[in-house]
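Same chain as my last thread, 98 residues:
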Amino acid sequence: MIRVMLPAHLRTLARVSGEVSLDLKGAITQRSLLNALEARYPALRGTIRDHVTQARRPFVRFFACEQDLSLDSPDAPLPDAVAAGAEPFLVVGAIAGG
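reply #2:
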């Protein structure tokens, strides 16, 4: 099981509390994880990635194993600890301002 931590506003939208668990088959990538997340929680479609381009939204970041994965290829394998469920995949809302 893949563990996913969502920010509070996305947990509210998806109507979940705490961590989300996903059972993925095949390669564990950002794309496969986000596809499974949006399939299970349709209210999240378009909030993390653009509807058309599937590109990550500008103020959303991805972290795992103390690494920023936001700029990695969506098809790059996620760290083994995430694939094994030992570490969560974090979706974080970035904060901007001056």
